[in-house]
Write a structure and sequence with these properties.
The chain is mainly β and 251 residues long. 0% of the residues lie in helices and 58% in strands. The chain is built from no helices and 19 strands. The strands form four sheets. Strands 3, 5, 6, 8, 10, 11 and 12 form a seven-stranded mixed sheet that branches.
Amino acid sequence: MALLAIAPASGITVQGIAFVAEVSPGERIAYNMTATSDANVTEEVHAHVYGMTHDEHGERVGIEPDVMHPYSAAPFLKVAPEVAVVEPGASQLFVLEGVVPEDVGDGGRYAFVSIHASVDEGDMVGFAPEVQVPVFLTITGSEIIETGEIRDLNISEGDDGGLVATFRFNNTGNYHYKTDGKVVLKDGEGNVVDEVSHSSGSSSLLPSEGRTCVFELAEEVDLASGTYTVEAIVSKRDGTVLDAEEVTVEV
C-alpha cells in the first residue's frame, strides 16, 4: 500500500495515505497524516472527513457525515485541524480521531479524509486536486459476511461479431473484498467454446454497492448456428465462489 500521495497542482504531499485497522466498540482511535507543501507560496490547506463508497465503475464517492449510510465511519470521525496555513516547504500534522460507537454493529466501516489546498488565481478562489486518505475499519469480534449476487445477466451481439455478456454484481454482505470474474461460453454439447476472465485489480468492492461487468466472447470464433450456454462466475481472490448464473442464447 502506498505511503505517499501527491496533489500535483497544489504541491501538497501527504504521508500516511491509508488507515487500515481492526477496532472494537468503544475504542478511541487516532491516525496521523502529515501534509507538506512543495509550492513556493503559502497555502491554505483544508481537511474533511467523508463516508466512503463508490460508483458502479469503482470510482470513489464521498458521503457527508450527516447522511445515513450503514457502513459509513464518518459520523464518529473528525479531523483536526480542518484548515491550516502551510508555509513553503513546511509541514502540517492532521489527526483523524474518534470513538467507535458501542452499537457500531458488524462488518466493516469506511471513510476517507480529503486534504487539498485552496488556489488563488486572480479574483477566482478554488481548490486544487485533493489527496484522499481512505479508512478501512474492521469491527473486531463481529460477524463478517462476504456474500454477493449476480443480477441481470444479459447476452447481446457484439459490434464486430461474437457475443457480449453484461451483468451487475452486488456486494450483499457487510465487508469489502476484491473479486475475479469469469464468463464461459459452451456449445450445445457442453464443449467450452470460449472463456474470458477479468479481475477487479486493487480496488475493493464495498458492502451494499455493485459494479457493472462486461465480457466480450468469441470475438475470433465463427459460431455455428445453435443453442449456447453462457455461465457467469464471480469469486473472491481466494477462489471462493460468491455467485454463478447461467443463461442460454440462440445463435
